[in-house]
């Protein structure tokens, strides 16, 4: 067997989030959160507690970026 493009196991995917309660930005691996089925519009989600205020934050695989909001803003303006 030949690997043409090496992927990344789902548990190793990294997500960047901003807590909506305390505005802390953080990154985490999918394996650090807990998986939940979600609904038919959004699909499955990964739930993780904010490291500062401990409220639940939600990431949607396939829709959530690996960059935090401030990193996305910085990349946009550096173009």
Secondary structure: elements and pairs:
Blueprint: E1 14-18, E2 25-29, E3 34-39, E4 43-49, E5 56-59, H1 69-77
Antiparallel strand pairs: 1-2, 3-4, 4-5
Quick summary:
With 79 residues, the protein is mainly beta.
Low-pLDDT sequence parts: none
Radius of gyration: 14 Å
Widest sheet: strand ordering: 3-4-5
**Average pLDDT over all residues:** 86
Helix content: 10-25%
| Number of structural domains | 1
SSE order: EEEEEH
Q: In total, how many beta strands?
A: 5
Query: How would a crystallographer describe the biggest sheet?
Result: 3 strands, antiparallel
Overall shape: it is globular
Strand content: 25-35%
Number of helices: 1
Your description of this structure?
By secondary structure, this protein is mostly beta strands. It has one domain (12-77). 11% of the residues lie in helices and 34% in strands. The protein contains one helix and five strands. The chain has one helix spanning 69-77; strands spanning 14-18, 25-29, 34-39, 43-49, 56-59. The strands form two sheets. It has a three-stranded antiparallel β-sheet, with no helix packed on it. Strands 1-2 form a two-stranded antiparallel ribbon. The longest helix is centred in the last third of the chain and has 9 residues, at 69-77.
